[in-house]
């Protein structure tokens, strides 16, 4: 688990994403530039939306590959409780573009609406952004409804698998959420 978390931090460094006002792997101590200010503004928008992705109207960055992005989902029972393995398509593993993560999440919900919880969406977002970089050939992304809802840094530090699913089940399932 620690190696996976370390890999996620490395993926952040490679991507040069802004975290907490600084830039991992980027010029954190450098004087602000227009590009750095734009990255910080973009991350602030992500934080305000509560998601790892947003749709920015007018940006000319369409999806690089057509859907479908999710092949199938199927509930499984594990020792820690229920799990929803999500199997991305080849396109889902490689596509980029604004709004694509939300489109892929809508595909998950179309295949099984019971996955519509805040915690499962956060796990999906984490897998979409980081697992595709760190473990591009991983057969499935396993989403567990019993995992707690946590902030992005803890989600990354736990390799998209926060908390103990078994202990989280004692508190009951996460609430259902609306998807726009």
Task: Identify the notable features of this structure and list them briefly.
DUF2599; 6 strands; 180 residues; two-stranded antiparallel ribbon; DUF2599 domain-containing protein; alpha+beta; globular; disordered C terminus; signal; 2 domains; four-stranded antiparallel beta sheet; 7 helices
**What is the residue-averaged pLDDT?**
74
Q: Give me the oligomer status.
A: single chain
Record field, number of beta strands: 6
If helices are DSSP runs of H or I spanning 4 or more residues, what is the number of helices?
Answer: 7
Task: Please give the share of residues in helix.
Answer: 40-55%
- Taking pLDDT < 50 over at least 5 consecutive residues as the criterion, the unreliable ranges are 9-31, 51-55, 165-180
Number of domains: 2
Rg, rounded, reads: 16 Å
Task: Indicate the overall shape.
Answer: globular
Structural class label: alpha+beta
| Helix/strand order | HEEHEEEHHHEHH
- Biggest sheet record: 4 strands, antiparallel
Strand % is 5-15%
Task: Please outline what is shown here.
The chain folds into 2 domains: 48 residues, no CATH class; 100 residues, no CATH class. Helix content is 42%, strand content 12%.
């Amino acid at each position: 688990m620690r190696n996976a978390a370390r890999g996620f931090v490395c993926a952040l460094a490679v991507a040069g994403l802004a975290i907490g006002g600084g830039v991992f792997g980027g010029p954190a101590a450098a004087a602000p530039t227009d590009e750095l200010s734009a990255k910080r503004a973009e991350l602030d928008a992500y934080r305000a939306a509560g998601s790892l992705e947003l749709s920015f109207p007018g940006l000319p960055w369409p999806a690089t590959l057509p859907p479908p992005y999710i092949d199938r989902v199927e509930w499984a029972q594990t020792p820690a409780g229920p799990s929803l393995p999500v199997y991305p398509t080849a396109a889902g593993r490689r596509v980029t573009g604004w709004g694509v993560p939300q489109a892929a999440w809508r595909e998950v919900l179309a295949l099984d609406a019971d996955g519509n919880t805040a915690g499962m969406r956060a796990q999906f977002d984490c897998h979409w952004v980081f697992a595709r970089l760190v473990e591009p050939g991983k057969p499935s992304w396993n989403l567990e409804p019993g995992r707690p809802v946590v902030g992005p840094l803890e989600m990354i530090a736990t390799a998209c698998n926060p908390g103990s699913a078994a202990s989280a089940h004692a508190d009951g399932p996460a609430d259902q959420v609306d998807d726009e």
